[in-house]
Automatic annotation (TrEMBL):
<keyword id="KW-0238">DNA-binding</keyword>
<keyword id="KW-0227">DNA damage</keyword>
<dbReference type="Pfam" id="PF02735">
    <property type="entry name" value="Ku"/>
</dbReference>
<dbReference type="InterPro" id="IPR016194">
    <property type="entry name" value="SPOC-like_C_dom_sf"/>
</dbReference>
<keyword id="KW-0233">DNA recombination</keyword>
<comment type="similarity">
    <text>Belongs to the prokaryotic Ku family.</text>
</comment>
<dbReference type="GO" id="GO:0003690">
    <property type="term" value="F:double-stranded DNA binding"/>
</dbReference>
<comment type="function">
    <text>With LigD forms a non-homologous end joining (NHEJ) DNA repair enzyme, which repairs dsDNA breaks with reduced fidelity. Binds linear dsDNA with 5'- and 3'- overhangs but not closed circular dsDNA nor ssDNA. Recruits and stimulates the ligase activity of LigD.</text>
</comment>
<protein>
    <recommendedName>
        <fullName>Non-homologous end joining protein Ku</fullName>
    </recommendedName>
</protein>
<dbReference type="InterPro" id="IPR006164">
    <property type="entry name" value="DNA_bd_Ku70/Ku80"/>
</dbReference>
<feature type="domain" description="Ku">
    <location>
        <begin position="52"/>
        <end position="180"/>
    </location>
</feature>
<keyword id="KW-0234">DNA repair</keyword>
<dbReference type="InterPro" id="IPR009187">
    <property type="entry name" value="Prok_Ku"/>
</dbReference>
<dbReference type="GO" id="GO:0006310">
    <property type="term" value="P:DNA recombination"/>
</dbReference>
<comment type="subunit">
    <text>Homodimer. Interacts with LigD.</text>
</comment>
<dbReference type="GO" id="GO:0006303">
    <property type="term" value="P:double-strand break repair via nonhomologous end joining"/>
</dbReference>
Amino acid sequence: MRTMWKGAVNFGLINVPIKMFTATESKNISFKSLHKECHTPIKQKRFCQNCDKEVEYTDIVKGYEYQKDSYVIIEDEDLEAIPGEKSKTIDIVEFVKLEQIDPVYFDKSYYLAPEDTGKKAYKLLVSALEQTGKIAIAKVVIRSRESLVALRIYEEILIMETMHYPDEIRKSKEVPGANYDINLSENEVAMAKQLIEGLATDFEPEKYTDNYRTQLLEIIESKVQGKEITHVKEKPNTGVIDLMEALQASLDMVKKEKIEDVTSKSKKRSKKTG
């Protein structure tokens, strides 16, 4: 892993030197834009429409559009003048329970590893968080942005979750079509709850895979090998299904899958003891 940031966690009067690493990585398959005629990659140019010419990177400045087509220029000196802009500390503000924070607030995850000189202080913070069952809420400036973050324990090390500020989260009431009033029968609710209970289990992330990415990689590999691809189109489901019928069919399917699962496990045990 490549260190992307170095600093320290301020825990009261305790300073914990740390290194930060990106905790997640995108496995999305990306495509390049090619010229249809010759399959040459298309280059994106920095072009000024007003001057009708390509612009060098050194001739580009930061501009904020305060009204339509009107900009104010922000210099590097303006950003450096903001208190804390060059801060290299993660300042803990308070400690809370993780279950008090809705997942909508979380953005991206980063591992925090101790520097050699701060291993004891790091271990102290990790142990204190583990034993109190709390997480830390802190602030940190990274890449000219002050972020609200949560520090918590993940697999016995510190992980930092960047968070959205409350004013960055859109109100659910603003979602078109989400606010409506409709009556549900007791039987419908009871069957839906039964379906949820039937599918309830412990979370095991290892059993989930990106099937779309797997199939896309298979298509890419087949094309690389020069094989012909056969595309099977699914027929759209245009039928309207009664809600109660759908619930019952779903429950029957869950029961069948559970019976098959139990039978399969029983056969495996028989082979081991046989």
